[in-house]
């Protein structure tokens, strides 16, 4: 898809797309994926880059609102217009009036209708993560705490989000809708995807740096120690789940965790980001437990969390949203300078990523 941005490409090349100042990261002409002048929707890198850019568009929509940037001063629109998306509407939090999501409609020129367009979405619902600015940080951190205590499903922001998702799916069908999100926004997209999957609607989802709060076992270098700790954690979790009668399967009911296994979101993780890196061990540990003959323990442990079990024991409803049956795990192995870079959205449209992908399908 061609778009003439004048001297933007030259400016980006001269500045260094990934070495720019943090204050310039909102400007598509300086930090956006300008290398995607033509989008091949059958290409995984292209789909990932566009999805990440649309999420970035939501971040910038909110920053434009906070800084009262309007007209020529607004920076958000190039993040979707470059890829021929139209902003249908944005979603506003009812507590602080911040923009936390956007619904985009794909409207390519007729000249761009070719085979690869068949792989494109018709609509994308994208969710931003936490913005550490006074106008939004209080509400965003409050929602981050809801994730920590497995209560995001109880928030008004999620109610607004899931109603919007249901309305779009009811109008255009599940095959035409993508979900995308980063950090807190990835948790929102994940919960929306799981909620829809429970009712038989399996939406394509792109989850960037989705939080997984647990002991940082993945950061341990000694593989034997790491594996031993994971086995111990699985045995304890499975034991508590069994003791509290949270059995994953019985003859009278369908295993709800297995029922979700047909939904396979794309999960983008950086091992240098301790907020999401536990997904690597969480998914890989299942295979290792099967290999040593105790897969049944892991199948029970993998759908429960210690925190969720304790909350349930206290009579509080808990939805450990980070626990998912299946996923297409994409790990960015490219070295990062610090946590901020490892957690950032910008990494996911870089053309030079060292990526490892693996499909995990719950059985």
Automatic annotation (TrEMBL):
One of its GO terms (molecular function) is hydrolase activity. It holds the Pfam family Lipase_3. It comes from the Eukaryota. It comes from Populus tomentosa (Chinese white poplar). One of its GO terms (biological process) is lipid metabolic process. Keywords: Hydrolase. This is Fungal lipase-type domain-containing protein. The lineage of its organism: Eukaryota, Viridiplantae, Streptophyta, Embryophyta, Tracheophyta. InterPro entries: Fungal_lipase-type (IPR002921). Residues 163-202 form the Fungal lipase-type domain.
């Amino acid at each position: 898809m061609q778009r003439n941005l004048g001297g933007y490409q030259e400016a980006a090349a001269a500045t260094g797309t990934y070495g720019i100042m943090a204050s310039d990261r909102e400007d598509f002409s300086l930090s956006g994926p300008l290398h995607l002048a033509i989008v091949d929707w059958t290409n995984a890198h292209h789909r990932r880059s566009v999805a990440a850019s649309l999420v970035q568009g939501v971040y910038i929509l909110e920053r434009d609102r906070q800084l009262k940037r309007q007209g020529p001063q607004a920076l958000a629109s190039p993040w979707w217009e470059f890829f021929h998306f139209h902003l249908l509407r944005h979603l506003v939090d009812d507590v602080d009036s911040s923009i936390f999501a956007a619904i985009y409609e794909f409207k390519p020129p007729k000249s761009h209708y070719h085979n690869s367009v068949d792989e494109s979405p018709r609509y994308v619902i994208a969710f931003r993560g936490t913005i550490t600015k006074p106008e939004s940080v209080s509400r965003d951190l409050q929602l981050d705490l809801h994730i920590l205590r497995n209560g995001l499903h109880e928030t008004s922001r999620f109610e607004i989000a899931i109603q919007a998702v249901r309305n779009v799916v009811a109008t255009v069908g599940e095959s035409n809708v993508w979900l995308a999100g980063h950090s807190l926004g990835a948790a929102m997209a994940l919960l929306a995807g799981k909620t829809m999957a429970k009712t038989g609607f399996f939406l394509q989802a792109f989850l960037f740096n989705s939080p997984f709060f647990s002991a940082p076992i993945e950061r341990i270098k000694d593989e034997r120690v790491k594996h031993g700790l994971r086995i111990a954690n699985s045995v304890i979790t499975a034991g508590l789940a069994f003791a509290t009668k949270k059995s994953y399967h019985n003859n009278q009911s369908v295993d709800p965790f297995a029922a979700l296994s047909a939904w396979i979101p794309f999960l983008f993780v950086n091992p240098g980001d301790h907020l999401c890196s536990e997904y690597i061990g969480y998914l890989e540990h299942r295979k290792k437990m099967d290999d040593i003959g105790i897969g049944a323990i892991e199948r029970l442990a993998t759908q429960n969390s210690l925190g969720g079990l304790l909350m349930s024991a206290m009579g509080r409803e808990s939805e450990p949203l980070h626990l998912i049956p299946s996923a297409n795990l994409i790990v960015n192995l490219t070295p990062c300078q610090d946590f901020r870079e490892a957690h950032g959205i910008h990494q996911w449209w870089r053309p030079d990523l060292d990526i490892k992908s693996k499909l995990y399908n719950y059985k």
